[in-house]
Specification:
The chain is an alpha+beta fold. The chain is built from four helices and seven strands.
């Protein structure tokens, strides 16, 4: 069996306006702004927003697929993702600018508490964005399913 890796490629180039870049992904173009701490206009989505968006969207897609594979009655899934970092590091101070904590609230509808936990466990194993980020920083995962809430990392 030959291992075939999937590869995703994007291009970012400065737009000519200070602190603004144009990103191209699969023929689609969008604007990304630098945050104010780097002197950017901060009017459009910024790189941290993109990173957290990747975790949220890939997570919901992964959960949707797993539920379908397992025949679970998932009717809706959403993720609220936030990350905390010290912006002084980005501004050049001698502080590590890494994301110190990422918080994920996984909202699942139509499944039981046990099914929600099963989906969350499979998500943590199968989502490449989660797997990559969890190796770099702590991710606090809260699972909400039809008014039942559980927390875990």
């Amino acid at each position: 069996m030959v291992l075939r890796l999937a590869t995703a490629t994007v291009t970012a180039r400065l737009s000519g306006q200070r602190g603004r870049a144009i990103v191209n992904a699969k023929g689609h173009h969008f604007v990304v702004d630098s945050p104010l701490t780097l002197g950017g206009p901060n009017e459009e989505i910024n790189p941290i927003d993109l990173l957290l968006s990747a975790l949220a969207t890939h997570g919901t897609f992964t959960v949707e697929r797993i539920a379908r594979e397992l025949g679970l009655p998932l009717t809706n899934a959403s993720m609220l993702v936030s990350g905390s970092f010290d912006p002084r590091g980005v501004a050049g101070e001698s502080i590590d600018p890494y994301l110190q904590t990422i918080r994920v609230r996984l909202n699942l509808e139509g499944v039981t508490r046990d099914q929600a936990q099963m989906l969350a466990d499979a998500y943590k194993l199968r989502c490449p964005v989660y797997a990559t980020l969890s190796k770099a920083t702590r991710i606090d995962l809260e699972i909400v399913s039809d008014s039942v809430t559980t927390s875990g990392s």
